[in-house]
């Protein structure tokens, strides 16, 4: 570690203050994620209970309308998290902090080189899990279930059953809307579910 002059100590204080602020911002975003994951099943539970008891299955199409703003909020916050973590790793730790205090040790592993190596440590083990241990990133599966499968699958299934009974067998389902409306809604929701899935999985 380098011997720090008074100006270096001031620069170090500024970098650590920014790092502290950004990590607080990350904690807030993670807290929002937990809240969003709780809201979608709650909305679905209340909506499903009403739809089943009242037997008004056309209201299944309303569920994604309520969950879409929450979904796009999740996608935006996830993007913010990625940008902040990359900034911490690439700018604060690799450039500014290293410029002030130097590196901790020469090593093959990035996380061993830096005094604050958490971001590099995370990237190292995430890559190891995906490539060597074949562990999936479970938070992406949870996001897919919460923001794609739960809101869209019931209404797409309902639409498919209604459309199939118009052309194949009568399942005893009735709707207040004509079948072309069901077809249009199902196409829109299918496109939206594919789009959101790609945003979550990438």
The backbone outline, from C-alpha atoms, is elongated
Strand tally, please? 0
Could you estimate the helical fraction of the residues in percent?
over 70%
First CA to last CA: what distance? 39 Å
Count structural domains.
Answer: 1
Main beta-sheet strand count, sense and barrel state: none
Relative strand content: under 5%
Report the structural category: mainly alpha
Question: What does the average pLDDT come to?
Answer: 78
* Order of helical and strand elements: HHHHHH
Spans with pLDDT under 50 lasting ≥5 residues? none
Spatial extent as radius of gyration? 24 Å
Number of helical elements: 6
Describe the structure.
- By secondary structure, the chain is mostly helical.
- 80% of the residues lie in helices and 0% in strands.
- It starts with 5 loop residues before the first helix and ends with a helix.
Any chance you could write out the topology, listing elements then pairs?
Blueprint: H1 6-54, H2 63-101, H3 110-113, H4 118-133, H5 138-167, H6 179-201
Helix pairs in contact: 1-2, 1-5, 2-5, 2-6, 5-6
Brief overview:
By secondary structure, the chain is an all-alpha fold. The protein contains six helices and no strands. It has helices at 6-54, 63-101, 110-113, 118-133, 138-167, 179-201.
């Amino acid at each position: 570690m380098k011997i720090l002059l008074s100006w270096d100590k001031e620069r170090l204080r500024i970098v650590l203050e920014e790092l502290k602020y950004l990590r607080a911002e990350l904690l807030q975003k993670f807290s929002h994620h937990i809240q969003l994951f709780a809201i979608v099943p709650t909305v679905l539970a209340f909506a499903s209970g009403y739809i089943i008891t009242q037997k008004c299955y056309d209201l299944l199409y309303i569920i994604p309308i309520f969950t879409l703003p929450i979904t796009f909020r999740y996608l935006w916050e996830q993007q913010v998290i990625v940008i902040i973590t990359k900034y911490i790793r690439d700018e604060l730790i690799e450039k500014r902090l290293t410029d002030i205090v130097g590196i901790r040790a020469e090593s093959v592993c990035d996380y061993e080189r830096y005094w604050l190596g958490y971001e590099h440590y995370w990237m190292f083990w995430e890559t190891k899990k995906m490539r060597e241990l074949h562990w999936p990133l479970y938070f992406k599966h949870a996001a897919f279930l919460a923001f794609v499968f739960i809101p869209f699958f019931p209404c797409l299934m309902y639409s498919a059953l209604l459309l199939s009974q118009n052309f194949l067998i009568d399942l005893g389902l009735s709707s207040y809307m004509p079948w072309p409306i069901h077809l249009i809604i199902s196409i829109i929701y299918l496109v939206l579910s594919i789009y959101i899935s790609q945003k979550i999985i990438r």
